[in-house]
Amino acid sequence: MENYFPILIFVLVGIAVGVIPVVLGWVVAPNKPDTEKLSPYECGFEAFEDARMKFDVRYYLIAILFILFDLEIAFLVPWATVFKDIVASDSIKLFGFVEMIVFIAILVVGYIYAWAKGALEWE
Asked: Which of 123, 104, 15, 107 is nearest to 68 (CA)?
């Protein structure tokens, strides 16, 4: 059991670091709510619409396309960092180049497809 004692201390310190500031803020901080602070919004305006209003599907489509192409472009960074090593090696020089051309071609085809379907148009 003495092998687990440092883990117990670590967990207790972690809990203390999370709980002590919250309790200390609750005890020490001034708590003087007035009508403005208790209103739904501190700006003083009541809500105009329901907070659960529907967003247009195109918004989500643009967001998904952004994430997709952003993440795919992130795959170019490792290739670019080892590009000098790829070019220096005669055995994989052509393979490394063709592999990245195919990757970029797939991205371009996907971009053209999204553009042709009208996914990038906003009215």
From this structure: 107
Phi, psi of 62 (to 5 degrees): -65, -40
Supply the pLDDT for residue 44: 53
Q: What is the pLDDT of residues 33-55, one digit of tens each?
A: 777 666 666 555 666 666 677 77
Contact between residue 62 and residue 56 where contact means Cβ atoms under 8 Å apart:
no
CA gap 106, 66 in Å, rounded: 16
| 90 three-class SS | coil
Distances in Å between the alpha carbon of 42 and those of 21, 39, 47, 60? 25, 6, 11, 30
Q: What pTM value is reported for the model?
A: 0.50
Distances (CA, A) of 119 to 37, 45, 57, 70, 110: 43, 36, 10, 16, 11
94's CB contacts (< 8 A; 6+ apart) are none
